[in-house]
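Format notes (please read before filing issues)

Several people have asked whether sequences and structure tokens are stored in separate files. They are not. Every record keeps both together, in the order shown below: the sequence lines, then the token lines. Line labels are part of the format and must not be stripped during preprocessing.
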Amino acid sequence: MKKQGNTLPLPLKAVTFAAKQHHGQMRKDDETPYIAHPVRVMTILSEVFGVDDEEVLAAGVLHDTIEDTDCERKDLERKFGKRVASYVDELSKDMDLDKPEREKKYASELEDASVSVRLCKLADLYDNLSDTKALSRSKIHKTAARAERLVDIMTSDFPEEWQDAVLVVRRKIQEVKRSVGDSDTEKPQSPE
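Then the structure lines:
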């Protein structure tokens, strides 16, 4: 048997890399390994939104590596190419800024980001909204409100072909808001 070069599909290589980068990190419930979140983001991109671009799927898995680990953009460029590294960089907040300034800058950058980056962020928001069991009622409300603001900012000019992804996230936001008794939630629209 001959040994071949690394022939793993790009998203699988990204999962392996992200698992190493996030090793030892846990989700807010202190039970779930952090890697579950990026893997779910990739799965949402693929299975819920219908994304089949391997570089976008890889970016989905890697989206927190620059922000939450010691990984740098150059590391991602070397392993996954410029496009994936660029997407992950765009999905990363500038942690050198204070929180209000950081959030404002991040929202502004997402507004102008590529559709691929915005799809990754939508999948990230969807997963965070689906994983609120360890959060207080107040934190759940803030998470839903922040998600709603970002979705509004990111999707005003979203292409028609991806509107179903936007709708799925908006429905999840409403579901979460209803779960904490938010009186501002709209009744879900019935299908026409």
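For reference, the curators noted about this record: The chain has one domain: 10-177. The two ends are 58 Å apart (CA to CA).
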